[in-house]
Design a protein that fits this description.
By secondary structure, this protein is of the alpha/beta class. The protein has three helices and six strands. Strand 5 and strand 6 form a beta hairpin.
């Protein structure tokens, strides 16, 4: 049991990588107030809250009168990843040797900051494997993905 938990803990780290598509525009330095919106479709309340909190930790403020907009998209390819045993084990594993189907989501998270005239101020995208939706692990891995993605966003240093 403890071994399984250790494997699960190891399996959820470093599984999301990000890259900046557009470095921060100098105009972003003077902006503090933002709002969060999905690029298309219905808002994801959990993701919107995580993004908002991450920006606030970087010195920005969620506001009803924003200076810029954070647009986000979360695209997932749901399905079970099949791990099969194609070769005999070096030593017998007993009845626990089997094919395991692990429900995970290959995910792409994209974030774009735009000014009110829709000029891109900063943009990044990340890909990785997240835990199944609506699970405790899902919230943790989604939060890790948001933090990984936004770590390259410049901190706001101006006083409110």
């Amino acid at each position: 049991m403890l071994f399984s938990l250790a494997l699960l803990a190891c399996g959820t780290t470093a599984r999301f990588s990000s890259h900046v598509l557009q470095p921060a525009d100098p105009a972003l330095a003077g902006l503090q107030r933002f709002t969060v919106q999905p690029t298309t479709g219905e808002p994801d309340a959990t993701l919107a809250q995580l993004l908002s909190q991450a920006l606030e930790r970087r010195g920005y403020r969620d506001s009803p009168s924003p200076q810029f907009v954070l647009l986000y998209a979360l695209d997932t390819d749901t399905g079970a990843r099949q791990w099969s045993v194609n070769a005999p084990a070096p030593m017998p594993l007993g009845p626990s040797q089997a094919v395991h189907r692990l429900p995970e989501q290959q995910t792409r998270l994209s974030v774009r900051l735009t000014d009110l005239k829709q000029r891109i101020l900063w943009e990044a995208s990340g890909e990785g494997v997240l835990a199944p939706a609506n699970t405790a692990a899902d919230a943790d891995t989604l939060e890790q993905a948001v933090e990984t993605l936004l770590q390259t966003l410049p901190r706001q240093t101006d006083a409110p």
